């Protein structure tokens, strides 16, 4: 009765592959969709895939590659990034933010963009961030991930002139459980020109960075 | 007893002038601050100034210019934009969004950036937006303002490849009063790579666009 | 000590069978209730039944039919729909919305109403919806299911004149987890005359459509 | 700089006139828009207009008609409804709901639809509603407005088979102030097939009723 | 290091035994507490005990009695209720509310109060409630439990003069998941003199009824 | 077009007069309603009437009595309370709660019930409450009003055995502005058998007390 | 009928004068209360007094002193602070926070404690704060006030070892309007050992500092 | 690719060891981090570690000590507290709050501070708290933990003059589930000078106490 209508023209319109949201789909739905991407000669990227679901997909499609930290699957060759310093730096407040950083990094890799990662530079120990400012200079776009109170992108946006994409992370407890406090703190930021994506949305931050890199 | 500590080095660090948040300041505080900007030979921009407060400031400082639609004050000459098509397009869902559009436009003017405005292209009459797609092609960055359910930036992000900054607007009533529904809809967008700023934050959207234009 | 008081006169009053809400009932409670429907010669429909609970009920009552996608049970013959084009079209934004679409479709089948399904026509790839507009013309009522920002029913309501019932779906994460963002976006819609039901309420949307079809 | 793009093709597409949301527009914006509707020979309807703004518009455009209870303006002749019993009944829980009832009634009048009003039939005195059930029989669609806990549409939907559009009203205080409790109660209704619109959205309920009447 | 300080004087001050909140305690903590109640010759009542925890407690203290529907444990003899019609009626909207009804009933039994249960008299089929009104006449206090939109206590409070304690139940989904919509609907009730307790608080409703029965 | 349907049989069914909610009604609506109560020989009670509206009503109906602290109007003779100690004590946490206390007191007076008021016995200075415990002994029902964190009814319910009706008051700021924190604190109370009404609902607390006094 | 029960023993128990919450009291209530403080030879402090109310109180009690920035009244001599560096530093993110800083400062003055104010050291221009770190060394307790995203206390708590009391300020708009975002950000802080008070609660922060100074 | 940047200078700056947030880290990440603390000769403290994760860490690092009640791990010798009465008292409302009390106690032990625990002194049986007041006199700082309505710190702050740190606990159900009601009640407290930390934040309360003890 029911069918998926893939957006295979997305690369043409937007310069992006369609990523498939895996969390609310069954392994069977994911397998069918990946086969159709493959038939259309398009790179397949599936996000938010649990380890169990990943195993079920790999059993059916051994050419699929599972990216454990990023909780993603890909089918097809990732394009090699051009030489030179990575145009995107991805920062994170703590090492608990790892999967969001990994999702953003993989989504950029799917489009041939390299990433410079700076983990655990949260504002509770400010020197860790201030020490890294020179390293940030070569980046064209910054993605800053933070949970709890989410102050990292705010502090960063007061220090450097590049575009900064804040990614609130669902790390925390009590009032910050689920990432809303980090999200709202980034939106309310007193620093000028910070933009924000949904909680844990590493993929969205990567696509926003991709749009910004068009202008180089 | 109490004093304001202006961030006069912001232009050097970030390429931006410091904008002063006028809503919770008295006319006296604003006057003092503008005088200090002027003394430092820096352009002064004050946002969220009510008509009454604007009148009080102008009475004391006749060189100040009031921008009624934008609810802003400026002191000092605005730089002339370079020739060529405006690099930023500002779209809005309805003509009620006027003051947010005007704030974004003025904040860009303060930095010598011209804007192409497209008002009242909301998704309830989709043809109004589809008709304008060719006109958007020359824009480097898009700012899309919308109240109520805030679907305009989502639809736009599915159609064009540029960076899109969604600005939720506090136009609406009941469940959408205050702009949270528009904000959350933009953050939850199924379209890839949309970024978002705070409700009614025309100034912040402008500064984000400015950061993105550095890369040209 | 405790007893269920079935609403067996609902068909007479409202032209509907009573659906039983299965989620917070034990298999034993469901079995007793289905036996009583059967004894009263009424079609039995139970919604929100987990696979485990469904198995327990089928073990006791082999005549029961389990509808896996819809997470429902029925006992008794479903009426055959009359010939002709289906009077209801059910659209969905993504293929993750499958169980809500299936619940609505089954609830209509229980009343002899056929459905035309249009899955995965979300607004991030607008052409998928615009392509299907002619097919929608023969529908008397539209049910539009969408998660995340829930913009599909809004866009639809600006394009076609039929009654449209928006069903927010609990597909999403972060700010849209649980479906509230989709719900509030549909309620705040700038498109005229969209009505809305509870999150994931496929059953309710079907019953609303049934009420609207009385007038044909 | 800025302009309104009226949706003058709405009647053709949807069989409706475009209503203008007056609350966040200035009198000047409203006057310009009404003049353009008039120039296009289309009926003009403006909702949520304060008495002061209405006076300012009437001073400029004496042909405009102000509807005080409905807080609306119209410009142009309202079509006469056809003979026969009104196809829409509008019920309300208390006499405080008057302006929402009036907005719905006027919006239907603009499309030639007559209304049967039943005010103050709230569930705290149930006999007032039960007494009126026979009178409801001739209605094709019911619009039920209620503030506070908003139980009226739920009780009604258990009693009669027609389509029922619930309109939560922002009457109440404390926990029900602003109408969210009424809204959520209607959405959570245990009665089958109730649909809901935004708080105080008399206009939207009317347009939904209009869509449902197409099928007669 | 750590110890529980039982409130063994509660019966003297308030005429109630102390109930122990079991949900966040380990089986070991519950066993120790019950032994101390028993040593003090006081009836022990523990609420919100999962089946697994109940088994662990019963293994250590075989004299404990588990009440499965009520999810409670007792240790000690329950007092026999005096002859005559039960002074408390407990109504519920659906048969999913069973455990809340059972908790209230058991807590009253611990104080020698008998209960008349009326299950599944929800407002979606109003006749089920109206039919039972005569049976309610002999009750001194009514406890009305309802999930979803929670309209039952409101309708009841418009019909009968006794004290009515509304108990919102966490049965529902989407907007009503967790019971807040039922709670807020009861608090916002347009019916006069309804009082409310926390979601699922059958124990609290029973203790409130006990306080009200002192005056007989 | 529109009419109020008074619930004149409320005294017969519930032993109460119908109170009219004045906040969202015009002076004209209130005047008409009071005239109809008077014509039916029933006591008229209108709550939440602003001073300006009260003046307008009194100008038209000089027999009306305005109760400034309670923000209410009455028309008709209040019944004299029977001799003996007042059966209801009304406590409040601070002297800012005065209007809620006054509304409850007046609503009881309309039914011939006398009240013992204990103002400003909040828990920040606990001795003020502990000193008054003997005075509370003769009360049959207690109404406890508190804003901010709303702890007064909780502390009280641990100390005395009577029925206690908690009334959260919209006194406070920041997190407690509007009274929700007081409301939720009362609902979450660890003290057994406290019941609660809506924020500022002095009238509802009074009607609940009236129901409880039936049993004496 | 109604009376205020002042907590005149607060100085003895807690070492503090009772502050009177002025916002929800009439000028008449405030006058009576101040007279009673004066009669008891106690310093009177009233917070949250609007300019109009302050004028009315001063007209009746000319010995009262109005503190305009702090929105407070005092009656009686403030104790002179001992010589030496001020033990409390009060920092604020922007000059819009002035009234909260002033309330905290005045409340400490009422207890003979001097304050070192550091205004406008928000994190958007981090150098302004880093420059002042040496000046903070002599402070025993820090009070840090911030609106918008409220990151100042978090950054501070990662840099200095003293007790830090975070005061969220209701400066901001959209998502940060009302101060909740600042509050939640401070509570969710990743910096160790930050404590927080209610939004705009300068008085409470001062009293917390006073408690901490007891230990010197 | 990714690395943790420990804040090993925290002891120097703040007099505290860095605690590692264990909940969102894998056992592998925790093992690596503890090894690096050990290599730097710093005490390692990891909070929020599930029993399973603790087992995995202990298998790899047998020198690690697991603290079951506190759900924490330590690596390295805890400093012995100096002789004399414990400077910190930790109170809790019920015995369900045990793990929060234990986390606070352990975090203080890591810094050589002893604790006097007072469990189960909740306000529903006030005498339990009043009886212990003399014992509290020797404490320099109080930490008060409470779930449900969270009134314990408020009552305490009205009785004793020391600094009080309120810790809301996620014990409760319905409206108080998750601890927000306790948190908001503490923030809204009418008692002067109470400060608050995040829900369940025993660690943060301990670090705040440590800051306050610097001044002795
Ligand atoms: N999936 C569903 N969604 C919404 N409402 C439902 C659903 N299933 C049953 N109901 C309604 O919930 C009411 C209460 O259910 P019950 O608890 O089974 O008596 C029924 O009368 C149905 O109208
Ligand atoms: N099921 C329940 N619902 C509401 N309150 C309860 C329940 N069970 C126990 N309580 C109350 O919770 C308080 C705290 O419980 P405990 O943590 O056991 O000391 C007890 O004094 C009871 O009054
Ligand atoms: N500005 C303020 N912020 C927080 N609490 C306050 C403030 N002013 C007074 N209070 C407290 O509020 C309590 C209740 O005030 P009142 O209603 O005047 O009895 C007083 O005892 C004070 O402790
Ligand atoms: N149980 C806890 N509660 C609150 N904060 C904590 C807790 N454990 C660790 N932290 C803080 O969280 C910060 C970030 O942790 P991490 O992700 O391990 O770098 C640490 O620097 C600690 O200050
Ligand atoms: Mg770290
Ligand atoms: Mg328009
Ligand atoms: Mg898709
Ligand atoms: Mg009425
Ligand atoms: Mg049922
Ligand atoms: Mg007081
Ligand atoms: Mg500044
Ligand atoms: Mg206990």
Automatic annotation (TrEMBL), chains A, B, C, D, E, F, G, H:
Transmembrane segments: none annotated. InterPro entries: P2CMN_synthase_LarB, PurE_dom. Residues 86-216 form the PurE domain. It comes from the Bacteria. GO terms for biological process: 'de novo' IMP biosynthetic process. One of its GO terms (molecular function) is hydrolase activity. This is Circadian phase modifier CpmA homolog. The lineage of its organism: Bacteria, Bacillati, Cyanobacteriota, Cyanophyceae, Synechococcales.
